[in-house]
Amino acid sequence: MTKKRMTFLKELLPFIGLGGRLRLEWISSAEAQKFVKVVTEFTEQIRNLGPNPLAKTYGDSLDSLDLAPAPSEATGSGCGCGCSKAAAGA
Amino acid sequence: MKDKVRDWLETGKVDLFLGYKQVDGHPLPHAFSKENLAELGELIVSPARYALEKLATEILAIKPALKIGILGRDCNQRAVNVLTVHQQISPGQIQILEVNCCPSPLRKHAACSTLQPQTYGAVKLELGVDNNMSVAQMDQFDQESLYSRWMYEFQKCLKCYGCRDICPVCFCKECSLENNDLVATGGLPPEVPLFHLIRAVHMAGRCVDCGLCEEACPVDIPLRLLYRKVNGIVKDLFGYETGGSHEQPPFSLLGESTPPEAEPHSKAV
Asked: Could you tell me whether strands B26-33 and B94-98 are parallel, antiparallel, or unpaired per DSSP bridges?
């Protein structure tokens, strides 16, 4: 099910201009090297894409309007995909 | 048409017939029944449409023994199929009296309820998304442009829930859009683009492309286009034709119908 949903979402996100920021991998706790490899790769990919446009465009405007903070406040890693793994590794 | 409805009601093929009646110049949904056959004279067919199958489903939830006929077009038929697949109604509970999709010589240019596609202002065309565009045309834009165009559209949202309320296949008792943990409350626009993406994802394998959401939208967000893309993906990846299939959609089933290329590991059998 996860595979199906993620494959679907991977196709959908580029349609609204957020492509390349989503990745799904299965990594066992015994696969440290794979974890490092995946996180390094993905961090590099995200860095090349630049900061998350959501945080830039709507994080600021929402703040100035004194509304609830945008979900993508975390600008640092620029990973707008909710993928905590990559954010932690970045 | 009226004779047929009369026949259906008299023979007991249906207990209730949902159609439209002209009230003060407005075509409004109306339930015709055996007791009020005289009213049938007021039954009208016009380009106006409403998700009658949604009303029928709500009635059937309370009185499952009823058989309901509705005046419908292709989109209503697809919606009934989806509602059956999702087990909201049983096969045969809703009978559709089909009318022409668009009774007009302008058919080629017709966009459902309106005879001509709507035209939009220069600002929307420049910054946003033209609702008449196709998925293929959208793919011509680069990522940055797509992003800013969709955000321009999404941030207009008034969170009126019109798209959800009119949607013939939105039947959930608890709606994710009203879940405070998923969508923050107390501000407008609703969390961009989360609100619309949640709805879009839920339309996968459900949306019947009736376009009522877009017609209901007070700020002209091109929802139909977004959901067309969503179901285009479902068709490409899983070969599932929403509204035309009697099988369960891919997101209702575990395992099977997973696209082979999505397998991260090839499982040894």
From this structure: unpaired
- Of B98, B131, B161, the residue at which a domain comes to its end is B98
Whether residue B35 contacts residue B45, with contact meaning beta carbons closer than 8 Å, is answered with no
pTM over 0.90: no
* 8 A C-beta contact, residue A89 and residue A49: no
Q: Has residue A80 got a pLDDT over 50?
A: no
Q: What is the count of structural domains for chain B?
A: 2
How many Å lie between the alpha carbon of A36 and the closest alpha carbon of chain B? 17
- pLDDT tens-digit map of B98-131: 887 765 555 555 566 666 677 888 888 888 888 8
Measured distance CA(B121)–CA(B163) in Å, rounded: 22
Query: Cβ A3–B200 below 8 Å, yes or no?
Result: no
Contact A24/B264, CB-based, under 8 Å? Answer: yes
Domain span at residue B178? Answer: 118-252
Take residue B27 and report the two structure tokens written for it: 């075509």
